[in-house]
Amino acid sequence: MSARRSQLITGRFLQPRIPAFWLYVIVVALTGVVAIGEQSLFRQMSPGGWALSWALVALYAAPVAIVVYVLDLYEREPIPLLVASFVWGAVAATTLAAIGNAGWGLVVARLGGAEFAARWAPALTAPFVEETLKGIGVVMIVLIARDEVDDLMDGFVYGALCGLGFAVVEDVFYFVSVFGGDLRGVLQGFFVRVIASGLYSHVLYSGLVGMAIAVVTTRRDPRPIRDRLRLAAIFVGAAVFGHFLWNSPLLEFFPARPWEGVDWLVIPLATAVKGLPLLLFVILALRLAHDRERRWLRGTLVAEIAIGTVTPEDVTILESPHLRRLARRDLERRAGPGAARLLRRLQREQVNLAMIRSKVATEDDPALLRQRGICRSLRAALDAISPAARASGSAWASPVG
Amino acid sequence: MIDPTAVPARPDARGAIRPGRRWLPTFVVLAVIVVTVLGGFVVAGALPVSEASPIRVGAVVRVRPAPGWSLVRHERTSISSAAGSIPADVAQLTRGSGALDVVALPRIGASIDELALFYRDDVLANQLQRLTVSSELERITLPSGLLAARFAYIGTSPESGAAIEGAVTVVAIASSGDGVVFDGWAPEGQLRLVSDEIDGMIRSAEVG
């Protein structure tokens, strides 16, 4: 097994010297007992419905997880940390949120009375309780592997996966407990909560909270902390408000049950009214984050062009995952799969070079010098395998202006 | 020269930047978890609550609502059973996330076993789908000295499809022939959060 593959599997999660790691393990273990008990109860209530529920949510969760994973164009996160984030959302956050929501619901009932609480408690408690508990999952990741969360996109990826874990368990709860757990109920639940609402759920809320945590904790952002806190407040505010609106009786166009005929067309429209604005906000935020990453990569590597570690063509290709793939494919055609693999490694090390440049204080930092050496030696090896490699990509990549 | 076939260490791998022991942030995270999860119960306990006056259900039982609970339904009705229509007074108390139905059955003349069977077969079975009840009928003695029987159940509401779990406590008064049923219920998974309050109301109820 290669070192790279080994790292993907064992990664940077198992860190027994870090206190946050043990807090994570203890909380997940304790809440896991409750979570398993609940799933066991669902299985007893409706064995077929429970199994179907998990099959359906897996159909939804797998592609969403892959899309979230590949959203980070320059530095894919270690899989153990992504799994840890998902597990926190699925096990710890869901279990703790059930207790927290009940407690704060009691406060709403004391202040507003039982009838008011029945209408408003989900909107006044869940957005704060659940976003806090899911956000803590991302904070745990930061505490366990601080250097992995170094940009907005990283925060979004960890947050979204934490939210996905939460959504998956909550969906199974709804399918079995609220929609009845029989075949018809589970399919109804899948339509309402996944097909009609799946785009607007916890993945978005927690993704935004993750971005907020990343913008505060990153070492890469040169802006003053006050500006970063302001941006974080906007992200958290959008997530909480979106969740509040979703849970509240405001803008409620959901048809009354039982649903028949045209009701099934109204349901996606009713969910879109509440969820679409937040989805558009998140898409905009992700585009801005991508642009930021691209600008950061270019700005960081331009200085390396002058000393010959990378070429202008390299930088242009690195900026675009599409161009990176085209360059590898082109080289594979001309020089074979070994050369393409070497180019993939060179591209990865060039991105790593940018990361190191942004973290070190001086031009002669040993880590930076070492990384430059790696890039140059990989380039030399590539040139030795295929003299045409240096020109690879030049057909579609324009030099840095 | 560096061997190009060797896998280089990640630039952000351990050693590049040594992670310190982060006790303070870990304690802060723990504190946030505790406040988020348990803070609501503490705040609710500190809030002033208006003392609800006891509710008389029929001429059979008086129940004092626990703080935060309020009466949402109080009516005289009848329950259809194999033995015919049985008059009953029903009160429903709720706190939002759970409810206690108090059913007074004047002069029904049944033992606690018969009352439990009656409520299971003629009330719960008509109200819930896929009803499952606990296999044992537990005997308990209330603080008033009355013998009661208790069983748990789980089922699905036919209107909403929601899973409901509950615990039924039945009391029979031999001298008058009256019967009382306390049915505490909540959406599945939430009964444990209100069960102490429901139990307190049952224990403090004045039966007879």
Spell the H/E element sequence of chain A. Answer: HHHHHHHHHHHHHH
The total beta strand count of chain A reads: 0
Interface with most residues: A-B, 75 and 59 residues
Distance, first to last CA of chain B: 95 Å
CATH topology-level fold name of chain B = Protein Transport Mog1p, Chain A
The low-pLDDT segments of chain B are 1-19
Fourth-tier CATH superfamily name of chain B? Mog1/PsbP, alpha/beta/alpha sandwich
How many helices of chain B in DSSP terms? 3
Q: Count every helix of chain A, treating DSSP H or I runs of 4 or more residues as helices.
A: 14
Topology:
The complex is a heterodimer of chains A (401) and B (208).
Chain A: H1 3-10, H2 19-45, H3 47-71, H4 79-112, H5 114-144, H6 152-178, H7 183-195, H8 202-217, H9 225-247, H10 263-306, H11 312-319, H12 321-335, H13 337-359, H14 366-385
Helix pairs in contact in A: 2-3, 2-4, 2-5, 3-6, 3-7, 4-5, 4-6, 5-6, 5-8, 5-9, 6-7, 6-8, 8-9, 9-10, 10-11, 10-13, 11-12, 12-13, 13-14
Chain B: H1 23-46, E1 55-57, E2 61-63, E3 70-81, E4 84-94, E5 99-105, H2 112-127, E6 129-133, E7 138-141, E8 147-156, E9 163-172, E10 179-187, H3 191-204, E11 206-207
Antiparallel strand pairs in B: 1-2, 2-11, 3-4, 4-5, 5-10, 6-8, 7-8, 8-9, 9-10
